[in-house]
Queue: 3 jobs
Job 1
Amino acid sequence: MSAPVHHEDERLAASWYEASARQRVDGLLDAGSFEEFIGPELRETSPHLPLFDLPQQFDDGMVVGRGRLDGAPVLVAAQEGRFMGGAFGEVHGAKLTGLLRAARDIGTVPVLILFDTGGVRLQEANAGELAIAEIIRALLDARLAGVPVVGLIGGRAGCYGGGGLIAGCCSALAVSEQGRISVSGPEVIETNRGVEEFDAKDRALVWRTMGGKHRRLIGGAERFVDDTMASFRAAAVDLFQFASTPDEATLEAEQTRLERRIERFGQCRDAMDVWQALGADHPAAIPGMPFEAFVALANRLEEPAHDAR
């Protein structure tokens, strides 16, 4: 009996950042409970990539299906950041849209989205942008039906571009230190505004501007987790309580919160200036702060995370 327990411990202790999409699903859900929809055996691949002589992947970088989390049914979608940076294309996006529409129709089963994306595929620009719009509509329809949609962010590609917009529409988010959330990526900002505005090669700058610690402190995520399957799993179970309906009052409250953020931090030039304004005694120490110490600090300093999304 000791071997299965040992295997379970290893599964839950595995790194989220280093894992593939399927490994994350396996580590997140109850063991053996996942049932995939539109799996690789169906070979639903992008119709666009062959036009550019680019390799395809039989699941198009998106894993969708159902399973159980802590004994309760869930729908889950996981992006494969190792395939084209987890970028959204026609098939990739359609699988997530379909899952969210199913959640709306069922009305009682929450959704987990495991983000790992650089945004929209340039090779499928129009189809990818349309996919983002369809996903956002399907996500909001699911939430209007009372379905919690929780995003988990901690992969290699981060959560950029259209992925960042979709994440912002979720009921709640959990992010690790390795996760990054932004609409425009570092290279995009540097290309359009110059290295003086943002040096994409400055990894410390990237992480303190877009990384999980900063997003948690300014209310961009409800939970900060460490880089283990167990930590993401616990956060997912906890965040299913965030099932608010995105009505007019919700939007007005969020708009007010963002206006106050600009008033409070609009003159800050760096994330460390924001942390100091939040009340951190030693803002320069935050990037190297251990997990437990940072969680305690974040709980004390945090901007309210979407009074409710």
Job 2
Amino acid sequence: MSTTSIKEVARHAGVSIGTVSNVLNRPDLVAPATRQRVLDAIGQLGYVRNDSARQLRAGRSRTIAIVVLDVANPFFADVVRGAEMEAEQAGGVVVVCNSGEDAARERRHLDILEEQRVQGVLITPVHDGPDSRLEQLISRGTPVVLVDRGSGHHHRCSVAVDDVLGGRLAGAHLVEQGHSRIAYVGGPASIRQVADRHAGAAAAIGTNGDLRLVETASLTVAAGRRAADEIADLPARERPTAVFCANDLLALGVLQEMTLRGLRVPRDIAIVGYDDIEFAAAAAVPLSSVRQPREQLGRTATQLLLEEVNDQDRHQHRHVVFQPELVVRESSSRQHRRRARANPAG
């Protein structure tokens, strides 16, 4: 790290500290010959300006924070990628914080981010509903945008997907495939997306079948495997013939465990996930899934945040809702079920 000071640069170039500052921040105010002399001194001395100190003096950094529920989930990795692309175009950077679905950990992250005076915060909060810590951030002038979570509040933006519709798409598809005993795997139910996807599936299935709730403690592959164990242990006449999972990680866990238990997908049990992460199409049995525009969620949230940062007085808070899309693959396709029956050894 450079220890050369701006005072040394000024002395070496034979100019004032103010002139060096102008070369760094407002070069158009400095005569070309003088500007070049200062730049030569900077190069010779290896001076690197303390940009973070300058930004803190100005009261604002060029850093945007994004707080996600699970940094290991490829869905959030794609959301972060979208946020990074948008921030980089505006000359900023994104720092990622992982709450791990832990409200106390989320608050600690927000405390540190406020101390660092980040430009703003993108967040998928642990709990749905009023949050005093987020309200505090907003009241002190730090813009907040909810990501993958709708907001009824007029003083903050949000970017989300219509998860009730997503659940309807999955539920209707399974009914159309001839299933009447269907399990919904997801949890905790306190997560809005989990509850909305369940509600959508229940509405689509209606009186056409039975929807069994298998609640999980988390949205991970391991939790999906435990849920699959619970389903597979049911008597054959009660066992669901199809499973709709709240995300693809759960669905991949269900797929793994059902295969180990000797149940064939989709012949014995159909599976539909949610998010359509890259691993869904690459699974041993390609996974049907409800697709979300993951990178677009991150890009749009960052656009809204930067709009507010750049003009807080005239910024109009907006709530953007994207429409999901069902992608049907082998794990739930009636066509593949028929093919498996015709070729039992396959």
Job 3
Amino acid sequence: MIKDPHATAAALLPLVGGPANVTSVAHCMTRLRLGLADRSRVDDEALRAVPGVLGVVEDGASYQVVLGPGVVGRVTAAFEALLAAGRIGPAADTADALARRGAELKARQKARNATPLKTALRRVADIFVPLIPALIGCGIVAGIAGLLTNLRWLPGLTPALTALSSAFMALIAVFVGHNTAREFGGTPVLGGAVAAVVVYPGVAKVTAFGTALAPGQGGVLGALAAAVLGTYVEKWCRARLPGTLDVLLTPTLTVLVSGLLTLYVLMYAAGEVATAIGTAADWLLTTTGALAGLILGGLFLPLVMLGLHQALIPIHTTLIEQQGHTVLLPVLAMAGAGQVGAAAAVYVRLRHDTSLRTTIRSALPAGLLGVGEPLIYGVSLPLGRPFLTACVGGAAGGAFVGLFAMLGTEVGATAIGPSGWALFPLLAGGGWAVTAGVYGGGLLTGYAVGFLVTYFFGLPDGAGRPVCDPEKHEPRPADRPGPRPASPR
């Protein structure tokens, strides 16, 4: 557990090559994400040994230090302050040269390790990760508003809470367009301007393919496509127009060309894709629910380990826009239950490993609330086999929730971000009590299966036994050198 974020930041900075080696700093819910000029200057082993560091991940686009929820924001702020101070002085003189020298290494490494699919998924994740705090906040406010409505409490307050929770979702296309243009190298405000047409009420007067458009048609998928198109139009214009015309014509042509194509092509196409996603998700769980839940729950932890789970945000957001909730999130949340069960089994079996048990105690509260990375990088992944048995527990929990979906009890979530026990206020479906019962049953199944499989199969034989008698501090009789006593006849 990190108690002093400034001390942690001060320990991290020299191990990643110092201020001159850091080109960008950002963070998500659990990870400090760094852009580096020269990857070879990083001391991976020393970083993992820093107290409070749960692991390190490299995805080609950034170097990620896993710190856990809550503390990562404070450490990032302290890290940025140290970074700014370190660049005022002699080290700043070498920053440009170091950046140029490291750029070639980074480019070669990215070309060697990155695949088109991984690059696309990471770009989508980088677009939506900055939106997660607003999605969480608005989702929890929506849950409170729904609870007050069901209980018929404070009827004068619920309309205000509904407005607060719905305003961001009504304009999320603008934020998606802004982030998309920034990610693809365009002007962010132009990306937001082009994407804004998706949610503008006046589009109801526009007809595409013989059908009147509806405000919000295509949702975040339409906004994403519109902003990508706008970025390419902007780059095309800037490469061909002289400076005197570029100021006036580039923004105009970007909005005009990409805006018209969005209205007459992209909104309709994205709307069809969004409808297909909703239909497929419903069919998947109502027809093959147990099998689908088993596969989704079992494979989600590897996605979290690779940092690719954020790429599912557009699908969740599309389902929430269409149906008011996402039916996939409660199934995927079962992976965290399997992780908690596996960690509990490790805690029981390795009762003489004080350091590991301390890590588990500090990471379990976050795991119960659905943040699995502290347990992944601090416990199961370093041990190896418990990571696989945690996946088995997640598969069992997912199959449980999927089975009830086949039987007609749908479990959904009105927002993304929270998981584990924190998801209970956001559950939606066929009545909160029934939905909560199914979801809670899935969690308990994931806990139990993850615990049992890990306890019996997740650790090698002899794990957890002391290497010496704790009182005498002598080797166990079976481990002492020399001849063994003769067996009785």
